[in-house]
Amino acid sequence: xxxxxxxxxxxxxxxxxxxxxxxxxxxxxxxxxxxxxxxxxxxxxxxxxxxxxxxxxxxxxxxxxxxxxxxxxxxxxxxxxxxxxxxxxxxxxxxxxxxxxxxxxxxxxxxxxxxxxxxxxxxxxxxxxxxxxxxxxxxxxxxxxxxxxxxxxxxxxxxxxxxxxxxxxxxxxxxxxxxxxxxxxxxxxxxxxxxxxxxxxxxxxxxxxxxxxxxxxxxxxxxxxxxxxxxxxxxxxxxxxxxxxxxxxxxxxxxxxxxxxxxx
Length: 264
Known about the structure:
It is built from four helices and twelve strands, in the order ααααββββββββββββ. The chain has helices at about 1-25, 30-40, 40-100, 105-110; strands spanning about 110-120, 130, 145, 150-160, 165-170, 175-180, 185-190, 195-200, 215, 225-235, 245-250, 260. A six-stranded antiparallel β-barrel has the order 1-2-5-4-3-12. A six-stranded antiparallel barrel has the order 6-7-8-11-10-9. The longest helix is centred in the N-terminal third of the chain and has 62 residues, at about 40-100.
């Protein structure tokens, strides 16, 4: 029974299709086609707009994603360029410092090794620097330390294999044997938290003048004699043994980044 029904449905479908083809060829279906097209005109427009909108939305999403990826790439490249520029600036600054020290008489008279400041006393209890050079580089205790201009700033007080500590002249524990470069008067360069750097142990009748340069005397095995400070004021008291001579360091202690340790 079922196979017969299927055959009937098949023949009906064939006849229907053949009728549609015949009527279409004779243009009998044109009125129906026009009405059919008119009926679906607006839905087609709506569907078309939705399709184009969806396509544009997808395109916008992909463009946004690409723009985001490009932004991340550009940020990464920009950071790399900034790092390169920073490294070049640091290298240029270090080269300038080295050229400056090499042009000083110091470089012709003494052997030295450069070091970089890698630490300071965070609590300012002492004027102390930690540098990235130690015994492996030939550093030893009591060696004199100068800045890039050749101004004396302190001495090595402790040494490890790859680091060393520098006690600055502005530390209260420091006492440097020194001499007035003009009058040859000797004394000690010390520091006091209240009055700052001063030239101690200078008798009342000794001749020291404002703007005189005070230089270091040889320390330990070092034969180096380097400028330390300038005299900024002098006070004499008849009833006291020593003059009160205030000094100003020649080196800018707050901006020291690179130091040079005199090896002889």
